[in-house]
Amino acid sequence: METDLLTRLTSRQCAIDDALKAALAQFTADVPPKLAEAMAYSLLGPGKRLRPMLCLLACEAVGGAIESALPAAVAVEMVHTYSLIHDDLPAMDDDDLRRGRPTCHRQFDEATAILAGDALLTLAFEVLATGCPPRTAAVSCAELATGAGAAGMVGGQAMDLAASGELEAIHRRKTGALIRASLRLGLYAAQAENGIIAANLSAVDAYSAAFGLAFQIADDLLDVTSTAEKTGKRVGKDADRGKLTYPGLLGIEASRAKAHALADDAANAANSLGNSGGLLAELAQYAVTRDR
Question: 10-residue block means of pLDDT along the chain (292 residues)?
């Protein structure tokens, strides 16, 4: 199923990559060269493009065209990339490897990495504001700010660094909040003219809650069962730092079972959208069986 699914998603991934390149070309023409290079290095590096893919698939699932969701897809990938750049810094997770290559601060320097992250974060909102109809842009900017901000992804990172709070609550902020925003932005792009259908919003929210946690548990498992060559990043770091993880809390097999149960919940929520939610359902199953 994995190979078949990834093959069927290839055209969408190509569309995302092309849109990312076009956005950089459009918005970094007058940016200092070193900063522009660092932004491109991190944004265009090899990656799963999971969050922009969720954005496109949510748009399609409710009858929208992927072209209408591409500005949102670009924006969420910019925010995600900024978060990775900053998470990798010595003051945060202190990582040297990301997506199979040196992290931004290792490839360039810490100051340039910080600025590249800042630039991608702010550029995400410029892309939404200029690439979407006004009504869609307004609600999308608000949604993305909520998902990425102090009550969402940033707050989850703060809780994770402080090792404070219940594990599921940390992950629902750190990972789940931006995933929820990605899916909602896809709905906004598809239903810009007629308004959001409440049942669709409920379905993607249920999907994101289950999918986000399943994805994070799978990441926790890869940190203890996979290799840096496969994942493209350093493994074993959570245990080295004494971080609270699902394998550490529940054990490997119980964590794997929980991830699969959550993937089933996500698939059920996606299927409630009808046949058009099938790819979202398949992606949920892939998220917990991947090896990277």
Answer: 80 97 97 98 94 96 93 98 97 92 97 98 98 95 98 94 85 95 96 73 96 94 76 62 81 95 97 88 93 76
Helix crossing, 134-148 with 153-162: angle to 10°? 10
Q: Which residues contact 2 (CB under 8 A, 6 or more apart)?
A: 286, 289, 290
Contact 110, 89 (CB under 8 A): yes
- Predicted TM-score (pTM) of this structure: 0.93
Task: Report angle CA 196, 155, 118 to the nearest 5 degrees.
Answer: 85
